[in-house]
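Q: MFS transporter, please. Structure only.
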Amino acid sequence: MVLAAAMGIGRFVYTPILPMMEQQAGLSAVSGAQIATANYLGYIAGAVLLSVLPSLATSRVVARGSLALLVATLASMPLVTTAPAWMALRFLAGVASAVIFIVAAQALLRTLRRNPHLSGWSYGGVGLGIALSGTVVLVAGPATSWPVFWYLSAVLALLLGAPVWTLIDRAADPREAASGTGGAGPGPRRAFQLLLAGYFLEGVGYIIAATFLVAALAGSGLTWLGNGAWVLVGVAAIPSCVLWSYWSRRVSRPTLLVMALLVQAAAVALPGVTENAAMVVVSAVLFGGTFMGITTLALAAGAELNVPRSAAALTTAYGLGQVLGPLIVQPTLDHGYQPALLIGGAILVAGAVVVLLLRTFSWPGAPVPTRRVSSRAR
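A: Structure for MFS transporter:
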C-alpha cells in the first residue's frame, strides 16, 4: 500500500494527467517534459540523501514526514498555474517518493531477509497504484477538469500511504543494514558496477515510456486507448513482481534481467512503429509486466552481492537515468512522441547488453539444480 501511494500515485499519476494539462492548461510538450524531469531530479535527490545519511531510512519522522509532503504537493498542483511552480512541486514529490521507496525497500529486505523471493508481493503495489489512479482518470473522462485529478490523487495517496505510520516498527530490526553490512570482495564490487550501469540504462529507457506513453497514444489518434493502456500497465505490474521473483528461484537473476530488459525494449518501441490498437495493448501489458519486475530483480541482486546500502545506490543510479531520459528525447518531441519511444527501446537494448556481462561472474544467488540421489548413494 505504501509503494502504491509513493510510486504508483505519487510519481506516475502525472502520466495520465499530462494530456489533459496540455489540452486544458495549455502546457506544451517541452514544458511537460521539464516538469517530469523536475520530478526525477527530486527522486535522485531523495535517493542521494539516504545514501549519504542511511540512518534516515529507519527514522519514523522521516518516513511519516515524507508521506505528508507527498500528499501536500499533489494537492497543491491545481493551486499554481506556471510551469516553474509545477516543477518545484514535482521536485518535492520526487524527493518524498524516493525516501518512502527506500524506506519500504529496506524494511522489506530486513523482514524477508530469509525469503527474498516473497518481496514481489510488496513491489506489486506500484502497479496497484498505477491501476487505481489510471482507472480514476479513465472513469472520470477527459471532459473533467484537470485539477480534480490532482485532488483525487492526493486523497488516494493519503489513504494508501497510511501504513507508513507503522512501517518502521514492523521491520524485523531497524538497526540492521538492509543489504549487507560487510564489505564485498573485488568480484562482487565489479559485478555491482555492471548492475549499476545496467539499472541506470533501465531508468533512462523505461521513463521515456512511463512519461509519454499516454500522450503518444493521444497524439496518434488513439486517445480512447491512452488511459486504458495506462491502466493495463498497472494491472500487469501487480502480479509481475511475484512472477519474476518466483522465476528467480530457478534461473539466475542476471539471466532474468537480460530477458526482462529485452522484452521491455520491444514493449517501449512498439507504439513508436505502429498505431495498431492490438499491438498497443500488447505493448502496455509487456511494459507493465517488466518495469517493476526489473526493479525487484535488481534490488535483490544488489543485496545478494553484499554491497552496503545497495538499495540506495541502485535507486540513485535509476533516478539519474530517469532525469536524463526526458532530456535526451526532448529535441525529438517537436516531431511527435514516436521517435522518443524508439530511442527508449534502443537504450533498453543497450542495458540488456551491459547486464549480459554479469553472466561472466559467479553469481552468489544462482539456483543450484537439484539432483536425484540414487538408492545406492543413500
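A: Brief note, in case it's useful. Residues 172-181, 368-378 have pLDDT under 50 and may be disordered.
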